[in-house]
Description:
- This protein is of the alpha/beta class.
- The protein has helices at residues 21-34, 84-89, 120-128; strands at residues 7-12, 38-43, 80-83, 101-104, 110-113, 115-118, 132-135.
- Helix content is 21%, strand content 24%.
- The longest helix is centred in the N-terminal third of the chain and has 14 residues, at 21-34.
Amino acid sequence: xxxxVKKFLYxxxxxxxxxxxxxxxxxxxxxxAAFDQDVSMxxxxxxxxxxxxxxNTKEIxxxxxxxxxxxxxxxxxxxxxxxxxxxxxxGLTEDDLQEIVYEDEDDDWAEKxxxxxxxxxxxxxxxxxxxxxxxx
Length: 136
């Protein structure tokens, strides 16, 4: 009897600092991925700020956890969906986001981007395709 793998989508809507939501979401994703869940992440609203490159948290006195996103590929978390409209509404573009890649073992370990910019309609389709959605 084969094991059914459920698809989990972790939805990130909060800014990276000021609350514990963003860090907790990242920790839960890493735990889930360690247990071989099919894990994806979605970044909407202020959640898009979590992926902004060159974050400096020295002035607010908290640890910058944003480099941890670059380790997601090692846990086979390779689908990071970013809503295009949320980026635009915050004056951001794809160029403002850090580069997050994974090595595709099916393509001779070629590095491929994990971030996928999608429209609101495409994000709705991604969400509809999931078995479990957890929102942070």
